[in-house]
Request: fold
Amino acid sequence: MADKQESSVLFSLNELMRLEEDRSQAEIARKAAAAKAAEEARLAAERAKRDEEERLRREEEERIRAEEARQREEQVRLEAIRAAELEKAKAEAEAEADERRRSA
Reply:
């Protein structure tokens, strides 16, 4: 009978040790999964930050290009106005000179 009790106690101890090992392995797996999730989240955050920085850089480049194009268009417009004013002044001066010649 003592052997039966001893055997039953050993079985119970072995079962408790197995349960503890299972719990320990589950804890290790949980920590590994948490570490993996944290690393993936960190990498995703870095990727999102790089993507945002790249988007902002492209927007700034586009803003600069648009501003340069606007300035070029404004320069062309001002040159056209100056050329038109010069032509008008030249035409007026020629007309005035013609008028003087006719009057003289």
Summary: The mean pLDDT is 93.
